[in-house]
Amino acid sequence: MRRPARAILLAGMILCVPAMAAPADGPALYASGRYLVDGGATKVHFHVKALLGSYDGDFLAPEGAVTIDAARPDRAAVDIVFPVEKLTSGDASIDAMLKGGSFFDGEHFPTVRFAATDAPLAGSQADTAIPGELTMHGQTRPVILSIRLIGVTSDEAPGLSVLHFAGALSVERSQFGMGFARPFVSDKVDLTIDAIFRRP
């Protein structure tokens, strides 16, 4: 059996975009400004169960930013895009299938995008739910990311110019028009996010 399932997970990518938080007391945890995603360090890992085993891979090389307005320090705007061409499963034949017409159809829909205009800022003490929209395979659906602040890169000063987040998201690929190979490959795609943002 071919492994079309891997494509499914892409939906969570975007998902990769974390928001930020401020503590109840004391100075704001996040400085205002535009934090660019580090495309070389950020990835979204997907996992899909199948009748026999499972499929795993990564969405790499995102572009975009998280923007915190000084007038609204407890909220952020998020806009992150992942190129379908950079999806990888470690198997060239699987990658070609996922990028083809049966799944992501990268020729017609070259990117996956996550956007949120009013995202609550994530803290380090508990997961933060971030409502947003995921656009994939030409279709846009509401999703909720669960994000937590891991910390600031150790070699950075208190300016918090480098932010590190971890997150998770689950989507149903059929909602984005990618129902191929069901029920042999699960409709549910689990995504885990490791994201780095840098403020120039």
SSE blueprint:
Elements: H1 10-13, E1 33-37, E2 43-49, E3 54-59, E4 63-68, E5 75-83, H2 92-99, E6 111-120, E7 128-136, E8 139-152, E9 162-172, E10 188-198
Antiparallel strand pairs: 1-4, 1-10, 2-3, 2-10, 4-5, 5-6, 6-7, 7-8, 8-9, 9-10
Domain Lipid/polyisoprenoid-binding YceI-like: 34-198
Protein name: YceI family protein
Keywords: Signal
What this model shows, in words?
The protein is elongated, with a radius of gyration of 17 Å. The chain has 200 residues and is mainly beta. It has a single domain (4-198), classed as Lipid/polyisoprenoid-binding, YceI-like (Lipocalin, Beta Barrel), CATH 2.40.128. A hairpin with a 7-residue loop joins strand 6 and strand 7 (128-136). The N and C termini lie far apart (47 Å). Helices cover 6% and strands 44% of the residues. The chain has an 8-stranded antiparallel barrel. The chain has 2 helices and 10 strands, in the order αβββββαβββββ. Residues 1-21 form the signal peptide. Residues 34-198 form the Lipid/polyisoprenoid-binding YceI-like domain. This is YceI family protein. Keywords: Signal. It comes from Sphingobium rhizovicinum.
Short description:
The protein is mostly beta strands and 200 residues long.
Which regions have little confidence, pLDDT < 50, spanning 5+ residues? 1-27
Q: Indicate the proportion of strand residues.
A: 35-45%
Order of helices and strands: HEEEEEHEEEEE
Number of helices: 2
Q: What is the helix content?
A: under 10%
- Under the CATH scheme, which architecture would be assigned? Beta Barrel
CATH homologous superfamily caption: Lipid/polyisoprenoid-binding, YceI-like
> How many extended strands?
10
Strands of the widest sheet, in order across it, are 1-4-5-6-7-8-9-10
